[in-house]
């Protein structure tokens, strides 16, 4: 009796592949059988039906005096007789026009139809020979041609019956063969499913046992052994694991000491590595900060240089100086707008002077009535968290969904506020730009004071 517990994976997969191959062979044989035999019988019966009509036609032509058709009639007789014999008794069929192989039919309906056609054909053949006989009298030939014309439809109908019988028998045989194929297919699929269930069941059972055993071994139970079973491959794997555990047991103490030493070395290396990484990261951050400071200083120096050029070009033109300063700083700082207001609106300037700044405070900016805004202090800057809607008509290019920051900076010189900066930005300015604006405001306030004292327009 076959012991399924000792089946190998190779034999299991080999069985699956063998069954699939057998299924393909059965399907191929069934297709070949129906395409080469049953279709051949139907084709031969159909040819008989056409030949019967052909023989009757050519006999009439011969009787009318067309003696050139005699070879065609004789060849048709030979083929017709051979075909009937092949259909009735089975065997090989070979003529000049058709070659094939037929198997004898087991259907009594087909055999009876063939016997009826055979009997009628014998009489048909005998009467046809009278027409072909040159020694027959005219009266005999007239009777023969009348018989031919009268019985030709009968022979055609008998041949038609043969075709119907073979077709019906063919359909029945096809049904049996299909049932046979489907039955074998279902059987093979069932066996394959059982083999797969067997395979997965044993594999997963073994994996669970091995996981449990390895857990016990790792916890120090070196006397535990895995069960050796579950198939040739699984049994071999279990045996190798047990041998490995036995080899580890004698050197358990030394191995633990060596493992602790290696662990301490690894910790020391890891600690040194982490310290080096931290030092390198600190150096890298310091270099990045230094680079940023140098870039900010270069950017600030370049800004002062360009602003000095504006101041030199418009030192006697107060309005031109204010306009060019606003244009230059807007481009250089990447702002939406940079504006300079003089001390025409004393109420607003006094509000800026007297405002008590806190980390977060609120006030009513009287220039925009009934607007309550939150304010955040950035040195001397006021940053409105929401752009006043009343100011949007002055900026038609500003999209409705955009949130713009409004920064206000008083320009002071000798304790006196002589102007105010209004800065519009789509994003919060970085610290180095804010510091640059804060420093530049002192120079700008001084320039406005001098131009005011000198009376420059």
TrEMBL record:
Q: Name one GO biological process term.
A: signal transduction
Q: Per the database record, which ranges form the HAMP domain?
A: 201-253
InterPro entries registered for this protein in UniProt: HAMP_dom (IPR003660)
Membrane-spanning intervals of the chain:
12-34, 179-200
Show the SUPFAM superfamilies listed in the entry.
GAF domain-like
**Recorded GO CC terms:** membrane
Q: Which UniProt keywords apply?
A: Membrane, Transmembrane, Transmembrane helix
Indicate what this protein is called per its UniProt record: HAMP domain-containing protein
Species this protein is from = Persicobacter diffluens
């Amino acid at each position: 009796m076959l012991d399924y517990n000792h089946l190998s994976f190779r034999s299991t997969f080999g069985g699956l592949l063998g069954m699939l191959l057998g299924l393909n062979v059965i399907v191929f044989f069934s297709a070949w059988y129906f395409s080469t035999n049953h279709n051949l019988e139907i084709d031969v019966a159909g040819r008989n039906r056409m030949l019967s009509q052909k023989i009757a036609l050519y006999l009439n032509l011969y009787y009318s005096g067309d003696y050139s058709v005699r070879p065609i009639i004789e060849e048709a007789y030979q083929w017709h007789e051979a075909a009937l014999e092949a259909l009735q008794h089975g065997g090989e069929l070979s003529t000049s026009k058709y070659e094939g192989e037929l198997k004898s039919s087991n259907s009594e309906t087909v055999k009876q139809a063939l016997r009826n056609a055979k009997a009628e054909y014998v009489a048909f053949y005998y009467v046809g020979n009278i027409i072909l006989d040159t020694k027959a009298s005219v009266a005999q030939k007239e009777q023969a041609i009348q018989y031919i014309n009268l019985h030709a439809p009968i022979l055609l109908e008998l041949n038609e019956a043969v075709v119907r019988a073979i077709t019906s028998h063919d359909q029945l045989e096809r049904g049996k063969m299909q049932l046979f194929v489907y039955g074998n297919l279902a059987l093979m699929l069932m066996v394959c499913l059982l083999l797969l269930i067997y395979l997965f069941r044993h594999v997963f059972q073994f994996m669970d046992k091995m996981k449990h055993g390895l857990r016990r071994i790792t916890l120090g139970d070196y006397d535990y052994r895995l069960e050796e079973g579950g198939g040739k491959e699984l049994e071999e794997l279990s045996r190798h694991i047990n041998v490995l555990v036995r080899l580890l047991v004698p050197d358990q103490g030394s191995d633990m000491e060596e493992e602790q030493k290696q662990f301490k070395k690894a910790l020391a290396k890891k600690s040194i590595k982490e310290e080096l990484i931290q030092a390198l990261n600190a150096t890298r951050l310091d270099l990045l900060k230094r680079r940023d400071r140098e870039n900010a200083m270069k950017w600030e120096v370049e800004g002062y240089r360009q602003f000095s050029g504006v101041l030199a070009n418009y030192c006697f033109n107060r309005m031109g100086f204010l306009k060019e300063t606003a244009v230059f700083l807007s481009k250089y700082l990447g702002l939406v707008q940079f504006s300079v207001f003089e001390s025409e609106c004393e109420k607003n300037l006094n509000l800026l002077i007297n405002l008590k700044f806190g980390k977060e405070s609120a006030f009513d900016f009287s220039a925009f009535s009934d607007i309550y805004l939150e304010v955040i202090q950035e040195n001397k800057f006021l940053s409105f968290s929401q752009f006043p809607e009343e100011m949007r008509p002055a900026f038609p290019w500003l999209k409705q969904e955009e949130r713009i920051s409004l920064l206000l900076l008083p320009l002071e010189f000798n304790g006196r506020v002589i102007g105010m900066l209004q800065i519009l930005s789509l994003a919060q300015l970085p610290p180095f730009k804010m510091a640059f604006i804060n420093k530049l405001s002192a120079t700008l306030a001084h320039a406005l004071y001098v131009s005011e004292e000198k009376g420059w327009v």
